[in-house]
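Issue: copy button drops trailing tokens. Both records pasted manually instead:
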Amino acid sequence: MRQLTAIEIDRIKLLTEKSVELCLIEPTETGLKKSIMDATGSVRTYLQTKSIHDFTQQKQGQDYKVFVKSTLISSFGIIPSSASLYRPITKNGDPRIWFKGLGNYAVANDILGIIEFDNELFVINITQLDLAKLLDEVSSNPLKELVNEINSISNEVSLELLGLLNQIAARGPIPAMLNADTAIGRTLETLLGIDINSSKKPDYKGIELKSYRDKRGNRKNLFAQVPDWNLSNFKSSAEILNAFGYNRGEDFKLYCTVSSLVRNSQGLKLRMDSKINQLLENSDKPAIGDFVVWQLETLHNRLLEKHNETFWIAADSIFIDGKEHFQYKTAEHTKKPIVTQFDILLDQGIITLDHLIKRKMSGSVVEKGPIFKIKPNALDLLFPPSNIYSLI
């Protein structure tokens, strides 16, 4: 895809501010003539995430073509359309997409936004349409109606969650449901009726929940992500543990924080390689050097997946009769992290990585991370302006 213009970026930001998720596609001159476009990786991921279509499950050939109801939105109205999704017999079956009527709607190299809503696809010409003008019009228009409906539904869930948090906070200090660092999150999730599981998906109807003890000044968890073992010299957490672990009582473990700024006591440090878009973990032992790798694109995708919308909930930790209680008191509501900032914050040591590796008595190795964390009071460096709510 070509580089976006400043105007196109502003128009995409305007949709993002309204809680509109979209993917982008750029028709070429050849594509418009042949009525065909490549379904790029971002388009395929978007359609799969929105439960519209999974190209990996689709067989090749015209007989297996799938059609999805679609609409092209213009400045004067709507154009009924249909999206055809298929994999040709030739070209290794590379995924293709086309929208009926697109040849009269766009010219070559226009940037088009694809938006899923209510199991239908809507196409917006980001290059040609004055989105700000259409959204600010007093009278109704198709774009304004679509954006307002999406925004209303998004706010409906967050307002519902905020109401539940207010009810929980009004109960006063609540006994921890277990004796562990994770008790604060487990207790809140139980109160909200959320099943405890290991899913990477957001917790409450698409909203991620992150609870923390307010007065500890702890870093906030962003997400966990294992390295790309195929690209790494070490091929497992067990190898990392064997190389850098230590004995603590009956345990052999590696519990440590790794930063891009300084080496830790194990001689470990993060290193950014912007030329190949990778984050590497490095040892000061010459025989080891760089030993694991993360693709920055993978980390960006995890950040966007995990924190598309998040409530960061602060609570006071209070001990009553020797038992920890939580008084949930504030919620910070963030949306749409700025992924380019993620790399900068990693490089500045504001985002760090925690290893939590331990060998069990049975000999098996468990890894709770690696967990990427951000320093306290640094959310505004990663997210657009947020809303902070008092719960008590």
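Record 2 (pasted manually too):
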Amino acid sequence: MRHSELLALLTLQNVEGVGDVIAKKLISHCGSAEEVFRAKSSALSRIDGVGTSLAAKIRNKPPLDQAEREAAFIEKNAISVLPYYAEHYPDRLKHCLDGPLLLFGSGVTTLRNRHVVSIVGTRQITAYGVDCCKRLIADLAPLDPVIVSGFAYGVDIVAHQAALEHGLQTIGVLAHGFDRIYPAAHRKYWEKMKASGGFLTEFRSGNDPERENFVKRNRIVAGISEATIVIESAEKGGSLITANLANDYNRDVFAVPGRITDKYSQGCNLLIKTQRAHALTSAADLIYLLGWDVAAAPKPVQKQLFVTLEGDEKTVYDFLAGNGKELLDIIALECGFPIHKTSSLLLGMELKGVVRPLPGKLFEAV
């Protein structure tokens, strides 16, 4: 990006009354941020949502001091800058009307042609939540998804750690600028995450992790992914805000159900009860409902020698061995299992190398 365009983008953000939506309208109309400041007031005022008052503020643009300081900070710290029209700006976020005008990145943050899931939840994660989160990511690992979360205490950091343990790319979306690490206790994970993933934020240096910034951050977490998974949540909290945003963006939302007496399962149970989330009992639920092509997984699992199948797995295997290729729905019907259970069984058998998925949700015994 030209230095002059970067300065223009940063300056445009400093104009009082210009938010992400208006800024994108201005740039789309004028062709670039630099051209916005060259346009006549009469032309600017005719743009939807601008008017004469805001056009005058744009023409009397703020001093360049703040923009120049931020540009120097960006260059000094090797921060990548992604305006909404950039090739490497996350594709799904481009389709969100209120997506950030600018994203700042550090590390490996390219998401093109990747499965991306966001995992969110309470900061007071329980042992049940830890187990569910780790198990889910371990089961998804053969499909090499990118795991996105908010780098906060609780579910967020457990998800990032589990992703690192399985060699997955993981991205933390921050509620502050790159001049600090918050929470400070997570500094020990910073370099590890940058090595196999990285961080994204819409906030400049000097922006503290204020409460309202976390709410803004949540729309990036929801918008950047094809699905949002809530591991644990109380009846109210930031995770439910993220889930609602994901629904607004027409993304799939999943929630891990829990006991009705558990405080940090109430939010998940409520999402499922009100049909704002699919119940997530295994990785197979997500894979099936999102239509992921398991056959195209980049980490194929070779058949294990001397595999012993018992119980339900043997029932499914014997059916496939005797009937050849079959649809998931038919397998579930003929074997007498719910579809979600059949999906889970098939995924486990695939990882053992005794079942092969085929296009069109077909499966066959190996």
